[in-house]
Design goal:
Hydrophobic Seed Protein; mainly alpha; binds 2-acetamido-2-deoxy-beta-D-glucopyranose; 63% helix; 6 helices
């Protein structure tokens, strides 16, 4: 039992070190990049009708290609969440945006996304 708890605390220490080290790896993405990538999607997100435009999808694809690390994805997710509060997107359009563009994103464009669950 004793060795088990030692193992667990060593693990916790390692995990804490990892968490401390992670933010030092610079996220290669900024909110302004994320927002400008998704700006062509605004009309689609607001109306919720039709399909996203080509320029919208190329922005989504660019975003998906840029945000590859967990840190990038969390940053992008938080940026999008903040932006979505201003845009107030149609929820179903926001949900299907990445899929409509043939891209997989680990989060949806929504005001209620839990960005801490990424990773
Ligand atoms: C979102 O768009 C869909 C499809 O156009 C529409 O049926 C739905 O009513 C819209 N939802 C809101 C909240 O505007």
């Amino acid at each position: 039992m004793k060795s088990l708890s030692v193992g667990a605390s060593a693990m916790a220490t390692a995990l804490m070190l990892l968490l401390l080290l992670l933010p030092t790896s610079e996220a290669a993405i900024s909110c302004s990049t994320v927002v400008s990538d998704l700006t062509p999607c605004l009309s689609y997100l607001r109306s919720g009708s039709g399909k996203p435009s080509v320029s919208c999808c190329s922005g989504v694809k660019k975003l998906a290609a840029t945000a590859t690390s967990t840190a990038d994805l969390k940053t992008a997710c938080n940026c999008i969440k903040t932006a979505a509060k201003q845009v107030n997107p149609n929820a179903s359009a926001a949900q299907s945006l990445a899929g409509d563009c043939g891209v997989k994103l680990p989060f949806t464009v929504s005001t209620s996304t839990d960005c801490s669950k990424i990773g």
